[in-house]
Amino acid sequence: MQWYYADQGQQKGPVEEAALDELVLAGAVRDDTLVWREGMQNWQPHASVRGPRTRPAVPEPVVGDVKFCGQCGRPFPPNDLVEIGTVSLCAMCKPAYVQRLREGALQGIGTRRYGGFWIRFVARVIDGLLVQVVLVALAALLTASFRAGAPRSGTIALAIIYPLSFGLSAGYEIYFLTSRGATLGKMLFGLKVIRSDGSKLSAGVSTSRYFAQFLSYITLGIGYLMAGFDEEKRALHDRICETRVVYSK
Ligand SMILES: [Zn+2]
Predict the structure, then answer these.
(1) Cα of 96 to ligand 1 centre, how many Å?
(2) 88: which strand partners?
(3) C-alpha 99 to ligand 1 mean position (Å)
(4) Rounded CA gap, 166 and 162, in Å?
(5) 0.70 exceeded by the pTM?
(6) What is the rounded CA–CA span in Å between residue 146 and residue 163?
(7) Chain segment 198-215, per-residue pLDDT in tens
(8) What distance in Å separates the CA atoms of residue 133 and residue 84, rounded to the nearest whole number?
(9) For residue 84, how far is its CA from the centre of ligand 1 (angstroms)?
């Protein structure tokens, strides 16, 4: 098929279809260049007859700052790269890299050492004592602040101490698990609490785990004992919250 095209007011051609394609690639025939072939009523813009020019897949020239993808080594504008850990990655390399990271993490799971029932039991006793010490100190302050023999002071003190005791132990565990990965008792034995995928506990998970422990508790402690019989040493609340207690080294 033979084409004619307009070039600066001049009619050019005829050229074969393939030659026209080359002119398009070279930029001599653009979307708005008028073209005509036999059978067409009028000259029409190239784009409306043969579709808009598809750009050849030439990478955009990188101007200014350039960073290199840590995987394929190609240059990119820094904003096009994602930082994962210490590695900069382009959009094409990122999925595979993340995949490999996951597999690495999964391999790590095989070498994990899980904290068993007894060591966790002792850690919990220590945590309980720590909270008790603080609580007793607060209670002493509280009773001292009441005048001796003031009416109903004992009742008021109890009404404050019970919620205080609850808030203190909840706050203690949730705070330490979220910010340090372990309570002081667990730290003492080099234990930490993680998600099954190895990630840290969010405040939400720490909170759910704290309350899930009541299930372990009200089942006469069977929920806790489950840790002793589980391959991954999961207590009931670990199963519920997808957490694991592991040695940090
Ligand atoms: Zn890359």
Answers:
(1) 10
(2) 83
(3) 14
(4) 6
(5) no
(6) 18
(7) 888 999 999 999 999 999
(8) 43
(9) 13
